[in-house]
TrEMBL record:
InterPro entries: GD_AH_C, GD_AH_second, SAF, SAF_UxaA/GarD, UxaA_altronate/galactarate_dh. Belongs to the UxaA family. This is Altronate dehydratase. One of its GO terms (molecular function) is lyase activity. GO terms for biological process: D-galacturonate catabolic process. CDD domains: SAF_AH_GD. Keywords: Lyase.
Length: 505
């Protein structure tokens, strides 16, 4: 059955759904047959052809070249004449995205919303004043040559020290050697930033000894506040590397076992916002739900981090209008254009997105995907723009440089200081990342069929008449921050991935 065909109380929902009065298309909530009569905005229309669930139907005639609107904004241009009641998708709708854009002068719009702040939660207080959602030991290899070692020892040590720390995790990756210049710097910076995440109460940096990413240079990039929790080991040094690593972990676990959770303010949370495997409902249910939570965390003085820069293309104007000042607006504009140049210099169009899964789920253009994706940030003011490997430091919404790839961008969110990641999805993925990753389903079929992947069903918002869903969601997230495990944590789905951009020697 189609992914959108089995929503809770489907019979109570309209056949099609439009989220903005300016929309010229609507989303089919279930499979529509040809010549089916449906009602929208007090008017009736007939389908001219079958419309798969999750796909768009034209609410008005669109001459070729006319803008098609969803979320009240342009999602592309009609490639041919489109009649009212026709299926609107990749066969008759094209992107209008171009390369670099002059985003003009800064014009501030009203930002923020009047919402209730969040309650307190139970976290681990760190000596630098930050709070962690987990008390873990992270094993990070400087180079791929010792990645299997840290993964193997991490699994063994996790079982040995389950009573002392929340987890011991070995995060493998294939980089750290045969890299040059900025590419090597990127690997070094992201690993150094991961060392600084509060959830890592202790970190063991494991090197081989002869790699490009030398331990000393890497440690120099780790913020001073986190160097005391670092331990290091070179596998090429004399002695059994497995036993030496287990001994270092044993010492760290004994120290961290003294830590206890205590009451923490919501302002101590740093939350990463991510979407992957989106469908047509992601922009109607899951992403807006994250936006409503973001508004509450923003009102509480917390930090939010938004990334996936290519999935902002086409939706950036509304985001930039929330910039705290002209400097932030300029930095955000430069980041978007720099990322477009990254595509263009590789000979790729800036609109080379959505994915095949997105398209099958009803998303047609990158503008449509982006307009749904940016809703994760709610109406929180945009206060900072940081490079890949940078760290969020200001209350409010920070824009982080990283691609859309799930593992790469989620790793960058953890490196930016996120102690919790909220991940929306319409098609599902089992993958989790360094910090607790809450999977939020856009539709109830996914939530029901993949209970080992999904933590929260956001399709509830389609049937609510109050704030019950965001209230429940907020309470659940505070429980996760306070120690309740996510599905990815329970199944051991914890990975990192590094953004490699240069030549390989």
């Amino acid at each position: 059955m189609n992914a959108l065909a089995q929503h809770r109380n489907t019979e109570s929902l309209p056949a099609i759904w439009s989220s903005h009065p300016r929309d010229t298309v609507a989303v089919a909530m279930h499979d529509l047959e040809e010549n089916e009569e449906i009602s929208v905005r007090g008017k009736s229309l007939r389908t001219l052809e079958p419309i798969p669930a999750g796909h768009k139907i034209a609410l008005s005639d669109h001459p070729a070249g006319q803008a098609v609107l969803r979320y009240g904004e342009r999602i592309g241009l009609a490639k041919q004449d489109i009649l009212t009641g026709q299926h609107v998708h990749s066969h008759n709708l094209a992107t209008a995205l171009v390369g670099e854009v002059d985003y003009g002068n800064y014009e501030h719009s009203g930002t923020g919303s009047h919402v209730a702040p969040l309650d307190t939660w139970q976290g681990y207080a760190r000596s630098d004043g930050r709070f962690a959602t987990r008390n873990e030991i992270w094993l990070l290899p400087t180079v791929g040559c010792v990645a299997p070692l840290v993964e193997m020892v991490g699994r063994e040590a996790n079982a040995l020290h389950a009573e002392e720390v929340d987890a011991v995790i070995g995060f493998g990756h294939p980089h750290g050697c045969s890299q040059l210049g900025d590419d090597l710097e990127g690997t070094r910076n992201i690993l150094a930033a991961l060392c600084d995440n509060p959830n890592a109460g202790g970190v063991v940096l494991v090197g081989l000894g002869c790699e490009s990413n030398q331990l000393d240079a890497l440690i120099d990039r780790v913020p001073q506040r986190s160097r005391a929790k670092l331990r290091t080991m070179l596998a090429q040094d004399p002695g059994d590397e497995r036993e030496r690593l287990l001994g270092i972990i044993r010492e760290l676990a004994g120290e961290l076992a003294k830590s206890r959770r205590e009451e923490a303010p919501a302002s101590a949370l740093t939350v990463g916002l991510k979407c992957g495997g989106s469908d047509a409902l992601s922009g109607l249910t899951a992403n807006p739900l994250l936006g409503r939570f973001s508004d509450r965390l923003g009102a509480s003085g917390g930090k939010l981090v938004l990334t996936e820069i290519p999935e902002i293309f086409g939706a950036e104007n509304a985001l930039f209008a929330r910039a705290a000042d002209a400097g932030v607006h300029s930095e955000a504009s430069e980041l978007l254009n720099r990322f477009k140049r990254y595509f263009i210099e590789q000979g790729q169009p800036v609109s080379e997105n959505p994915s095949p899964g997105n398209i099958a789920g009803g998303i047609t253009t990158l503008e449509e995907k982006s307009l749904g994706a940016v809703q994760k940030g709610g109406s929180v003011p945009l206060v900072d723009v940081i490079d890949y490997g940078g760290q969020a430091s200001e209350p409010g919404l920070t824009l982080l440089e990283a691609p859309g790839n799930d593992a790469v961008s989620s790793t960058a969110l953890a490196a930016a200081g996120a102690t919790l990641i909220l991940f929306t999805t319409g098609r599902g993925t089992p993958l989790g990342f360094p910090v607790p990753t809450v999977k939020v389903a856009s539709n109830s079929r996914l939530a029901r069929e993949k209970t080992s992947w999904i933590d929260f069903d956001a399709s509830r918002v389609l049937n609510e008449s109050d704030n019950s869903t965001v209230d429940d969601f907020s309470r659940y997230l505070l429980d996760v921050a306070s120690g309740q495990q996510t599905t990815a944590e329970r199944s051991g789905q914890r990975v990192i991935s590094i953004w490699k951009r240069g030549v390989t020697l």
